[in-house]
Amino acid sequence: MAKHTIFFHNRPRIVATATIAGPKECAGIVGKYVDKQLADDRFGEDTFEKAECKMLTYAIEHAIENAGKEHDEIDALISGDLLNQIISASFAARDFNIPFLGVYGACSTMAEAFAIGGAMVDGGYFSNVVAATGSHFSTAERQYRYPLELGCTRPPQAQWTVTGAGGAVISKEGGSVALTCATFGKVVDYGITDVNNMGAAMAPAARDTLITHFRETGRSPADYDLIVTGDLGALGSRILKDLTWEKGYDIGKNHVDCGEIVYRVIEDEFQGGSGAGCSAVVFNSYLYDKRKNGGIRSVLFAATGALLSTVTSGQGESIPCICHAVAVEVI
Prior knowledge:
- By secondary structure, the protein is of the alpha/beta class.
- It has 2 domains: 13-171, 3-Layer(aba) Sandwich (Peroxisomal Thiolase, Chain A, domain 1); 177-330, Stage V sporulation protein AD (Peroxisomal Thiolase, Chain A, domain 1), CATH 3.40.47.
- Helices cover 34% and strands 23% of the residues.
- The strands form 3 sheets. A 6-stranded mixed beta sheet has the order 1-9-14-13-10-11, sandwiched between helices. Strands 3-2-8-6-4-5 form a 6-stranded mixed beta sheet, sandwiched between helices.
- The longest helix has 20 residues, at 198-217.
């Protein structure tokens, strides 16, 4: 029996996406696929927090526009970000006369929003839902680590929070890219306390959800063209492959991580990208184009999140993590 996996029998569709990313991100592979490339990561605003909110607003607005929908056709907006009280999502939502569900799963928020939105549409409760997330390097650094002005040296295990946002419209019909099932993850904590080592902290949660997904669906890694995590980075990806191998599942041939591929030269960014905007940008631009145009037919999107705060880190707490997985297939 599938205790943690739900199957979408009506196969809700991802009918359109929209993405926006900063200059560092657009220098990499996603640059030619995003809807808007920023030349200035302030996006014309006087604070980085306002810029993050504006990016998320852009992703929501243009996802609706790209779907050929009007605002009053959208039944719900499901969104979140990394900042305290998910202020980017909440403040962006005030610009739309749409029912709002704020969700928080750190870097796993995009997959969580897909899973919740897919369930609502599949159950016939809503016809059109927007799922969207975003992040900004400068806001995340200020909140979770150090003020930028300190110029602290980054350790080699660190990742770089992506400046960007992505949104998608999930509808009951239209298009060929469908959500087919979702596996909701459990909180997993292996005792990691290093706030810079997100990959090592999140990899066990990814392993737990992936194995649950395979067992409850009867599928294997070979059933997917890609198993996409986000955002473990280079180190976390290697740890995940070892952890799944120990349980009898080989994901080495078709696993990719959004954090590993978002930047052009990963050596400059240590372990690669992270942040709620990382998988939102990569999945809804580069990977969505590959699915829509026939290059990739089946993807298991397993986004991971580190559920820490500066308060818990300062009190010596370890880092609880989560991973939610959504199967996205061309039908």
